[in-house]
Amino acid sequence: MKIEYEDPFVKIAGLLGGEEYIRVARALLNSENATDEEIASATGLKINAVRKTLYDLFGKSLITGVRVRDLKRGWFVYRWRAQKDQVDGFINGQKKKALDHLQKRLDFEEGHQFYSCGKPECRKLTFEESIEVFFKCPECTQTLKLIDNDHIKEALIWKIQQMVEEINNPS
Hints:
The protein is α+β, with helices and mostly antiparallel strands. The chain has helices at about 10-15, 20-30, 35-45, 45-60, 85-110, 125-130, 150-170, and strands at about 65-70, 75-80, 115, 125, 145.
């Protein structure tokens, strides 16, 4: 899946759902106001796969759909259009979600002490969990020792600062 020099709308679609999404996104850019059947025909994808992709992109506000009556058949169909102007907002929203997740992780790391037996296959425990098991590893029964998590906190702080800079100063 090589989309290096592709339109940002197509890149985002590819990141969301892979090759099928890329094909649908390209079809939307090539034909504004296309029906799901027209998109399926242009992409060679099954109609159900096209509809699933369209509904997902619509749910993320990357495309818009207008319901119109099909004059030949008499029933309603949707005509779909890419909203290329929403791509930057979508990316910014995803960055803010990631930033929020990183901040919650940092808060968790700062608010807890962690203990481990030192074996990579055994999980680390919070102080509260360690008390419950009398500071013995639940997997291997070795004594749990306090972990210095300063390097994790420093890495989280660095990444948070980097993301805040990106969000506040988009290129």
